[in-house]
Amino acid sequence: MEDRTVTMTEIVLPNDTNPLGILLGGRLLYWMDIAAAICAQNHAGMVAVTVSIDSVSFDCPIRLGDVTYIIARLTRVFRTSLEIYVEVFKKETGAHTRQKTNEAYFTFVALGGDGRPTAIEPILPKNREEQMLFDAALGRRDTRKNKNKKDEPS
Ligand SMILES: CC(C)(COP(=O)(O)OP(=O)(O)OC[C@H]1O[C@@H](n2cnc3c(N)ncnc32)[C@H](O)[C@@H]1OP(=O)(O)O)[C@@H](O)C(=O)NCCC(=O)NCCS
């Protein structure tokens, strides 16, 4: 699992928040993207770029001083692309437990030295949870492809 999971920890500082002291959505997405990129590149062994982010909702505010844990997990490798599942948890000051606040699926494409998409080594799931994420990744990929087709100008 070591190379397939990345955990990033951030504390929410004043510069990360809006005037109400709530973490900016864009800052959270930035942290999620960084964690996912490190996870993708750990496995690919080369630069990987974000090509899509599935919908992410902001249902639970993360506030100034909260600690956030951003956990990125490689779910499946296709040919040149990889899917990364990112979960976000927050821990309020003095709290003993973490609360899940967000999740999203990121797709990255590995680029070789020539800047072109490059095939990467596939992975096999190692436990039941990984197997479930791995199996469901195919359906999510189809959904993305269909959405991209619909979004094409006619
Ligand atoms: C990533 C990039 C090089 C892919 O180029 P491309 O011409 O679409 O390449 P291909 O058609 O060969 O597709 C390569 C892979 O990307 C996948 N892909 C392409 N567009 C995708 C999308 N919108 N969502 C999910 N996967 C996508 C393809 O399915 C393929 O995966 P596979 O090899 O595992 O089957 C190109 O889209 C690019 O440079 N995008 C900008 C990336 C970037 O700047 N990211 C930072 C965001 S600001």
Mind sketching the topology for me?
Blueprint lengths: L4 E7 L13 H20 L3 E6 L13 E11 L3 E11 L7 E12 L17 H24 L3
Antiparallel strand pairs: 1-3, 2-5, 3-4, 4-5
What does this structure look like?
It is a single chain. The radius of gyration is 17 Å and the shape is globular. It has a single domain, classed as Thiol Ester Dehydrase, Chain A (Roll). The protein is α+β, with helices and mostly antiparallel strands and 154 residues long. Helix content is 29%, strand content 31%. The N and C termini lie far apart (44 Å). The mean pLDDT is 95. A 5-stranded antiparallel beta sheet has the order 1-3-4-5-2. β4 and β5 form a beta hairpin. Coenzyme A (COA) binds next to β2, β5 and α2.
Compact summary:
This protein is α+β, with helices and mostly antiparallel strands and 154 residues long. 29% of the residues lie in helices and 31% in strands.
